[in-house]
Each structure stands twice: as C-alpha cells, then as structure tokens.
Design brief:
Blueprint lengths: L2 H14 L3 E3 L14 E5 L2 E7 L13 H12 L3 E5 L1 H5 L2 H6 L1
Parallel strand pairs: 3-4
Antiparallel strand pairs: 1-2, 2-3
Length: 98
C-alpha cells in the first residue's frame, strides 16, 4: 500500500467515524515535517503522519523534521501517530478512530 493509497483509506475512515480533518495538499509554505493529517472529534485531536510503501517495496521513513514535530506534539500531551499500512490490516487504525 503506497502512501497515497493509505491516505485514501485513512480519509475514508475519518469520514465514516465523523472526524473533522485537514490535509494540506501543498505544504511548501509550512514548516517542514508537519504531520499529514490533523483530525478533531469531540474531545480529541489527532496528528497523523502517514508512511506507506515506496516503489522499492521499503516502508517510508520519518525525516528528522517529522520526528521533531511528533516528539514535540507528544511532549505537549497530544495524540501524534505514525500510521503505516499494517495499522489498517490489523485493525489498529479502526480502533484509533472509533
């Protein structure tokens, strides 16, 4: 599953479970490394960085900027996750979003 395919899966589940969410398609003017998706529902905010499989068959890796964002968000008490295709296959993604 590529990152684009993973995005479509996550997007669909966010809509099914009635999350408000945003994904910036053009992040050139944003600080580097900001998570792919921010989702809000009731008393929760999720920051999701998506990593799919590249053409080489290798799972994508976090850049130092992405890791820094996730670390700082977690230190601030936020729910910040790296979502990979395995999370969809084993049900962790649905559990996270329900």
């Amino acid at each position: 599953m590529t990152e684009a395919e993973l995005f479509e899966t996550v997007r669909g589940l966010l809509n099914i479970y009635r999350w408000l969410w945003v994904h910036h398609y053009n992040s050139q003017r944003s600080n580097p490394g900001f998570p792919d998706i921010v989702a809000v529902r009731e008393n929760r905010v999720l920051f999701l960085e998506l990593k799919g499989y590249e053409k080489t068959g290798k799972l994508g890796t976090l850049s130092p900027h992405q890791q820094d964002w996730l670390d700082k968000l977690r230190a601030a008490g936020q729910e910040a996750y790296v979502v990979i295709p395995d999370d969809n296959r084993d049900g962790r993604l649905v559990e996270m979003l329900q």
